[in-house]
Design brief:
The structure is a homodimer. Chain A is an alpha+beta fold. Chain A has helices at 11-16, 50-59, 145-149; strands at 30-36, 42-48, 63-66, 71-74, 83-90, 96-103, 120-122, 135-136. Chain A contains three helices and eight strands; from the N terminus they run αββαββββββα. In chain A, the strands form three sheets. Chain A has a four-stranded mixed beta sheet with strand order 2-1-6-5. At the A-B interface, strand 1, strand 2, helix 2, strand 5 and strand 6 of A face strand 1, strand 2, helix 2, strand 5 and strand 6 of B. Strand 7 (120-122) of chain A pairs antiparallel with strand 5 (83-90) of chain B. Chains A, B: Mg(2+) binds at residues 91, 93, 95.
Chain lengths: 154, 154
């Protein structure tokens, strides 16, 4: 792999300069927040290594690093739910990126078949205990994951 | 610390059941995406340990774990930019949470003084190289960080 980004910037240069110098963690990853380009809804959270980040920038299609499968993963490669990237942002200290995407196929980004991975609400104001009950914000599945993935995900 | 969440759920129970069972990583953290409750804009990304997650749920004010300062951190404790949590979601495999917040004070969530940490855009479609130039999506600072933090952040 011959992907090269800028390296070795000071904290103030990372924050203030207009140079992409991603700070990959000990596992070689940055965190990626994915939102819907039209609605702004947060769809999912994923990780990118240098190769996934470069592939996303160059192809305008979201690529991630699958920590469970330990390999580069083009989102939608199995399911058809490719994410076309409309805009990419990087955060202040350059250890996270934000994608604004349009999702192909059914429009689902969650492997459970839902539009977003964040489909359950946590109650606020209660004392925390092991039986704290969630509620569904969106229980609808746009596809049946068993039909698309079998036992895999993505 | 006596915070207790449910533990030991199977993958399908984590995804399908209405039980909060956060999967903290090897460092004891979950990732937290923070959005503006009105606009939906992604403001920042942070981390929570069990104590920060419980404090956020119970007080409805965002608490995080500061990896740089290695301590619990109530957002806005120094700057006044407290984040009042309107809604909290958890993702499919429960290793990430989403907060929808209203920000007090100037409305800035980034320690650089900007509304959002994601104030720079990454160009798409170009070949990646060490001199890939970013552009400012929002350069405006709502406060001067030197006046509020001195040398710290938060």
């Amino acid at each position: 792999m011959s992907v090269t980004f800028a390296e070795g910037l000071s904290k103030s240069d990372l924050e203030d300069r207009l140079v992409l110098a991603p700070r990959f963690d000990a596992s070689g990853l940055v965190t990626c927040v994915v939102t819907d380009a039209e609605s702004g809804m947060v769809l999912m959270l994923a990780h990118m290594n240098a190769e996934a980040l470069a592939a996303t920038i160059e192809t305008r299609e979201a690529h991630y690093w699958s920590r469970s499968r330990n390999r580069l993963w083009k989102k939608g490669e199995d399911s058809g739910h490719v994410q076309d990237v409309v805009e990419m942002r990087v955060d202040c200290d350059q250890d996270a990126v934000l994608l604004k995407v349009r999702v192909r196929g059914t429009g689902a980004s969650c492997h459970t078949g839902r539009v977003s991975c964040f489909y359950r609400t946590v109650p606020l104001g209660d004392k925390v205990s092991p039986d704290l009950a969630l509620s569904f914000a969106d229980a609808d599945r746009l596809f049946d994951p068993a039909n698309i993935y079998g036992k895999t995900s993505g």
